[in-house]
User: Which sequence fits this backbone?
């Protein structure tokens, strides 16, 4: 699977480029074919015009049914003077219709001195460009006359007649490329999701295995002959089972909670609470953990207004999650600071640590569900990657915002903004 994916991308990319290339050369071919067709049509039309004008001349002279030789002789004295303008126009019209030339035209007939002796109504020498010249007089004719045919050429003629083809090509190619891009994107998302899923299952197994193992050991001990009559020990082991059970419950609760957030049914029990008090309480609860790691927690609760409308339990959980992370993702001795301040009617709570920090990619993704940075060796820290997504969901449910600033290797600062009452 790992190798098939890039291979597919490369193959499809090559095919798309190939198709575009082939299509372009097809269109190019079609354009030159059209051009040649037109040149040929014009050549055919001119000889047709000449023939029909000569025939008209012969008709007027009464020689149309004469033999070849006589007709040749008569045509020696050809002059367009004998024909009307309408005669000439009709000859051209007929030939053009026959060879499918649709553009409007003008014409003039000049004598040997290049002086016009006849012309169409719309003929004005200055505005017309180059002409197709048809010598009307046969070889050895007495009067040298030339028919100048000015075709008002449609500059976009080729584009017009091929427009649908080019348009359709562009359209279908665009569709193919878009569909391809969409497929790749979906594949990437799918890949990411499956990674997240297996990560999560790994984490969960890991988190639940430890309490299960402890419980199993405790039960083994309980069934031991020596223990079974010792009330003191029974109490000890059943207490252990209870604790582990509680821990497992908490983990399961965490997962369920995130599922609930997913379904958007967070029920907030809003009360007016003192944010500073809650922070103090959570900090107290974590004091032991920080002490264990020989760290320090410094509270600088300087906000003048600290009453907020919030759900007590969820708000405590938010603070707990941020402090828990600050402790978990530290190098050795965590130095943590919680600061509060007010601005723009918002209470800002900053949790600052000197831990491992995050790179930009991690910073942009920490609030995603299940996301955990892959930090190589340091990643023996347990977790589901649910904490910060919970923090974000709850903060936003309170009408607040959460931000992160961090320098990789130096530390991180999480800021929560909540509306003051
Ligand atoms: N204070 C922090 N310092 C460095 N990295 C952090 C910090 N807080 C969170 N992270 C990163 O964000 C990820 C997600 O955090 P979180 O949602 O709380 O999940 P968990 O703690 O279960 O891994 C963590 O795995 C970690 O990589
Ligand atoms: Mg966490």
Assistant:
């Amino acid at each position: 699977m790992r190798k098939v994916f890039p291979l597919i991308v490369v193959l499809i990319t090559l095919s798309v480029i190939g198709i575009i290339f082939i299509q372009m050369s097809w269109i190019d071919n079609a354009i030159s074919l059209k051009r040649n067709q037109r040149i040929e049509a014009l050549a055919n039309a001119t000889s047709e015009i000449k023939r029909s004008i000569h025939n008209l001349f012969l008709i007027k002279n009464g020689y149309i049914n004469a033999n070849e030789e006589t007709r040749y002789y008569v045509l020696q004295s050809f002059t367009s003077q004998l024909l009307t303008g309408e005669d000439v126009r009709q000859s051209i019209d007929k030939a053009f219709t026959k060879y499918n030339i649709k553009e409007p035209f003008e014409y003039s007939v000049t004598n040997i001195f290049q002086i016009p002796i006849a012309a169409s109504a719309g003929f004005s020498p200055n505005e017309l460009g180059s002409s197709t010249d048809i010598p009307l007089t046969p070889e050895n004719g007495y009067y040298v006359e030339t028919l100048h045919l000015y075709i008002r050429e449609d500059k976009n003629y080729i584009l017009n007649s091929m427009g649908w083809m080019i348009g359709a090509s562009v359209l279908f190619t665009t569709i193919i490329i878009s569909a391809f891009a969409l497929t790749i994107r979906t594949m990437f998302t799918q890949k990411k999701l499956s990674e997240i899923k297996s990560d999560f299952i790994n984490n969960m197994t890991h988190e639940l295995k430890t309490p299960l193992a402890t419980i199993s050991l405790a039960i083994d001990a309980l069934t031991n002959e020596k223990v079974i009559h010792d009330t003191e020990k029974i109490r000890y082991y059943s207490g252990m089972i209870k604790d582990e059970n509680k821990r497992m419950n908490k983990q399961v609760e965490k997962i369920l909670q995130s599922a609930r957030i997913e379904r958007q049914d967070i029920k907030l029990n809003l009360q007016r609470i003192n944010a500073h008090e809650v922070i103090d309480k959570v900090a107290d609860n974590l004091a032991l953990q920080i002490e264990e790691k020989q760290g320090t927690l410094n509270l600088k609760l300087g906000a003048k207004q600290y009453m907020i409308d919030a759900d007590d339990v969820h708000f405590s959980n938010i603070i707990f999650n941020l402090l828990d992370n600050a402790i978990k993702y530290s190098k050795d001795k965590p130095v943590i600071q919680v600061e509060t301040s007010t601005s723009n009617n918002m209470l800002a709570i900053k949790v600052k640590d000197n831990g491992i920090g995050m790179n930009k990619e991690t910073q942009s993704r920490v609030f995603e569900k299940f996301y955990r940075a892959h930090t190589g060796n340091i990643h023996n820290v347990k977790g589901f990657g649910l904490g910060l997504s919970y923090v974000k969901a709850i903060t936003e449910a309170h009408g607040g915002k959460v931000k992160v600033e961090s320098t990789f290797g130096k530390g991180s600062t999480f800021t929560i903004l909540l509306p003051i009452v």
